[in-house]
Amino acid sequence: MRNVVCALVVFGSFAACAKSPAPQSATTASPSAASSSSPSASASAASATAGVRVESRFPGDVAIVNDTSSVQRIAWSVPIEREDAGGWTQIHAMTLMQKCIDPAPAGGCVAIAPHTTYAPLPWTGWFGCTQCGICRENVPARPGRYRAVAMACDGGARWAGPPMTIVEDGRFAKTPRVHAAADDPSALVIDNEADEPASFRVRLDVSRLDRERNAYDDVAIARVLLAADCSADAGAEACVTVPAHGTIRSKSCSPLTPGTYALSVRVCVGSKSFYNDVYGYDFRAPSFTVDARGHAKPAR
C-alpha cells in the first residue's frame, strides 16, 4: 500500500486547485469512448495524423509522440478510459501538466513541435488528483485495464495509448508489492513483481500511533531491517537490492512496546521510481498492534 497519508491529510487544503477534470460516469460510455469503437472515427484519426501516437514507457506514463513534420495541437484534458464488456468507457481524466500545478494554457491546447515527445506528469493510478498527491479525497483505481486518450484540439482525431493494468487498488502491474507477512503482521515483505531489480533502504521507518493526536510519530529507537540478520549496516542510505521477481522480508532487531505501528520503506536515492515522483518512492504496509506480551496482530 503506498504512503498517501500526507496526500490525503497534510496537503488537503490544496485540493481545489489540484483536482483533475471531473470524473465521468463509470457505467455510461462517454462520446469519446463510443467513438473509439467506430471504424469511421478510427479512420479519421489515422488519416489525420498517422505519425502521432501515445506511448507508455513505464507504469502510468503517458507520452505523446509527434513524428510528423508539423506542429500538433493536443487538448489539455486527456480522458482516462476503462475497459469493460462493452468496450472502453471514459471514467476520469488527467491533464497535460508537467508539474504541479500547471494551469491550462490559453485555448486549452498544447502545441507539440515536430519530431518531439511531450510527457506530462504520469498518472498515479489514483483518481481525484490523478497526477499530484495533494488532494483531500484521492481514491485508488480498482483493478482492471485503463488507457489514456490524447485528443486533437479540433476534435477530429484521437489517439488511444496502450492499456495500463491495475492489479490491486491503485497499483500498476510490474511494480513492487509491499505487504505484511501472513504469519507476522509486524514483518514487512517486498515482492518485486517488476522485470528488473529494485533497491530499497535497509532501515525501515517505524511509526507509532499517538491516539490523542490520531497521528503517527516516528520511533527513532526502533530497529527493523530489510536484512538477513541484525548485524547488517543500518545506515540512513544503506541499500539492499531485491532481484526481479524476488522477495525479501524484514527482520525485527529490537522489541516494540505495546501500541499501534506502521512500517514504511523507501526506494534508494538515485533508483528508478516505479510509479512517478508522487507515489513512487515510499511504500507503507498495513498497520499492526503489539500487545503486552509482544505479540503482533493486524490493526483492523
Describe this structure in words.
By secondary structure, the chain is mostly beta strands. It has 2 domains: 5-170, no CATH class; 176-298, Immunoglobulin-like (Sandwich). The protein has 4 helices and 26 strands. It has helices spanning 5-10, 15-18, 31-36, 39-48, and strands at residues 52-55, 63-66, 72-75, 77-84, 87-95, 109-112, 116-118, 126-127, 139-140, 144-151, 158-160, 164-168, 171-172, 176-181, 184-192, 198-201, 205-210, 215-218, 224-225, 239-242, 247-249, 251-252, 259-266, 282-284, 288-290, 296-298. The strands form 8 sheets. Strands 4, 5, 10, 11, 12 and 13 form a 6-stranded antiparallel beta sheet that branches. Strand 12 and strand 13 form a beta hairpin. The longest helix has 10 residues, at 39-48. The protein starts with a helix and ends with a strand.
Keywords for this entry:
300 residues; mainly beta; Immunoglobulin-like; six-stranded antiparallel sheet; 26 strands; elongated; disordered N terminus
Short recap of the structure:
The protein has 300 residues and is mostly beta strands. The protein has helices spanning 5-10, 15-18, 31-36, 39-48, and strands spanning 52-55, 63-66, 72-75, 77-84, 87-95, 109-112, 116-118, 126-127, 139-140, 144-151, 158-160, 164-168, 171-172, 176-181, 184-192, 198-201, 205-210, 215-218, 224-225, 239-242, 247-249, 251-252, 259-266, 282-284, 288-290, 296-298.
